[in-house]
Amino acid sequence: FNLVISELGTPPPWPSLDLGSPDPSPPDAVAEFSEGAVTVPVPATEVDVHWIATRYREVLSLLAEGGFRDAAEALRGLETRTYEAASVHGLGELADAQLDLAAHLARSGVDLSPLLVLHARVALQYMATGRIVLTRHAVDQVRNLDRRGHAQRHSGAPLGNDLAVTLAMAEAATGNLAPAASLLEDVLAADEEHAEALFALAWVRERQGRYREVTRCLEIVHRYQPQRAEATLRLGINSARIHRQERARELLAPLAASQTEMPDWIAHLAAQELARLTFVDRRPQEAIEILERARSRWHDDLSLAVQLAFYLDSLGRISEANRVLDALGEAAGSSEG
After folding, report:
1. Nearest Cα to 273, choosing from 292, 298, 256, 295?
2. How many helices (H) and strands (E) does the chain have?
3. pLDDT in tens, 112-139
């Protein structure tokens, strides 16, 4: 789930924008938040809509003047202090002000790409520091801006959706599976063939034990990206879990036999799963042969040796099972020596 935002670079300055003259801060906006070279006035009490809109105009003015870094610092300061002063309600008011101004710019024919990149970079900075609420706000703004920008240019990558997938996986990695799934479903509602969102949702659903949904997502990924080995592996494993053994074998067998440059762990796990399916299907000798071929590649692998020894033992071939384990022990001893 890589975001290549760096490839976008720092956007060029906008042409002079007619944003109007920012109004002075209300009398209660006495505190200040300094970050880098930028000072952001902050209201001491409840944030009001007028103050928010004025401060965001200042951010856009910095961006229009070519001060991308200053604009990012000012935006981060504004969003952080708005959240600290008025929690989620304040961010909602800020989101409305941001989108109203973006709509005004779009109607004026201004390219929104620099503004989108600005919000995207701020979203990644929040994500890197674990500011989940602010990250969600920033990602939502990127997605909204991206929809407007996409309508302007009629082409281009959906950067907002990619950011949402990255955020969802960050949340899922900390155990927040339900919010992650909800965010991914939002992306898929906008783009039902978004491969990264489908793959990520499959990852989440697998951890929730919802294996039919896993296969539904991964069948779509496999249709469009058949060369994506990990998706094929997960589809095979989860097909077996919902008793689609033939489909599972069809997917796993080429991976287990592959000598291509796919990661070793994929071929290794595919061989183990294929052997397990074959053994459960009451074809133990064929399962043994699958594992023996795998061990020709991974001679000293403990999991393969134990699985092979178990299958041999189940057939009453106890001396062969012991030889497999003894050879593994000898290899371990010689490596220690």
Report:
1. 256
2. 14, 2
3. 878 888 888 888 888 888 888 898 888 8
